[in-house]
Amino acid sequence: MKHLLSTRDLSAASALRLLDVAEEMSAVGEREIKKLPALRGRTVVNLFFEDSTRTRISFEAAAKRLSADVINFAVKGSSVSKGESLKDTAQTLEAMSADAVVIRHPASGAPARLAASDWIDAAVINAGDGTHEHPTQALLDAFTLRRHWARIGGTPSAGTTLAGMKVLIVGDVLHSRVARSNVWLLTTLGAEVLLAGPPTLLPVGIGSWPCTVFYDLDEAIAQRPDAVMMLRLQAERMNAAFFPSTREYSRRWGFDDGRLALLDIMGLDDTVIMHPGPMNRGLEISAAADSPRSTILAQVRNGVSVRMAALYLLLSGDPHDDEPRDDETHSLPHDLPIPEGRTTR
Ligand code: NCD
């Protein structure tokens, strides 16, 4: 695997390998010294053409824990705001010998364009492109779900899938790259995915997605999901009126106190509530965000381990690459090999 652009083209073996390595990275995070020498001398550039708090910080923490040098390239205040093209920016980064570029861009497909170009030799990680995909978010969600599932059913051992799990994704699916990446990844990992949202916020062609669609939240909850993932209403991507009022939206589609209580009444003691953040409190989610069912902070925490695994696997040239093998023993976390220096073209 040279780049991480989407979950749609990620095989189950690659996804599981990444989650397994992330488990080991998480063990590093619990040690007194949280740093590994694995990416010493390598340069990771965070290239963010769209605002972000947690994703950028998470990638920065992940790269630093692996001892990489990190350059944060925010578009505001850079020459990009003077009209510099993606190509010129990429070539500048290449001249600075970037080994990995973590890119967030408002245009769907921008990371794939960069990866397919000869502008740059670095590994490209998609940190969210338009309404298309956000693969590391889905991977951290899958990591969180896998841990939760293991807590109920047993220990999370290497290679554990999400088979048997039912995940309900709710809200603004139309504008959500998080929803898309999760639909592909969770189904690849064996989970059953349900979607619920107003028809105006569900994309055309959703009928061909591998999920069941509900137009009523309570009807979807009646299917007894093991996890409910609330999506942020992406007002910044809306150029029309997609729902009558925020009050109406929160009544029909918000995970409010009444629906939180409903889970108790239904005896769904183990159902968790997820949200990728940032949250519109009082709109798509309210007290549920702070309830013991919420995995929201665990998701943020797990994001660092998952991004460490992604950077490590891409930059170290994983010898297991895509090949499911029986001897899945690796020397993490005590003795991470330092990858060979990259050869320049
Ligand atoms: C998501 C994103 O940017 O796509 N947030 C994130 O990465 N933490 C979801 C969102 O913005 O709603």
UniProtKB/TrEMBL annotation:
Give the Basic and acidic residues compositional bias ranges. Answer: 319-333
BP GO annotations: 'de novo' pyrimidine nucleobase biosynthetic process; 'de novo' UMP biosynthetic process; amino acid metabolic process
Q: Where in this chain does the record put each Aspartate/ornithine carbamoyltransferase carbamoyl-P binding domain?
A: 2-146
Record's catalysed reaction(s) = carbamoyl phosphate + L-aspartate = N-carbamoyl-L-aspartate + phosphate + H(+)
**Keyword terms of this UniProt record:** Pyrimidine biosynthesis, Transferase
What's a Gene Ontology MF term here? amino acid binding
Binding, carbamoyl phosphate = 54-55, 104, 134, 137, 277-278
Quote the pathway field.
Pyrimidine metabolism; UMP biosynthesis via de novo pathway; (S)-dihydroorotate from bicarbonate: step 2/3
Residue ranges for the region (Disordered) are 319-345
Q: Which residues bind L-aspartate?
A: 82, 177, 232
Name the EC number(s): 2.1.3.2
Q: Which domain of life is it from?
A: Bacteria
**UniProt xrefs under Pfam families:** OTCace, OTCace_N
Tell me, in a sentence or two, what this protein's role is: Catalyzes the condensation of carbamoyl phosphate and aspartate to form carbamoyl aspartate and inorganic phosphate, the committed step in the de novo pyrimidine nucleotide biosynthesis pathway.
Q: How does this chain assemble?
A: Heterododecamer (2C3:3R2) of six catalytic PyrB chains organized as two trimers (C3), and six regulatory PyrI chains organized as three dimers (R2).
State the family named in the UniProt similarity comment for this chain.
Answer: Belongs to the aspartate/ornithine carbamoyltransferase superfamily. ATCase family.
The protein depicted here goes by the name: Aspartate carbamoyltransferase
Q: Which organism is it from?
A: Arthrobacter echini
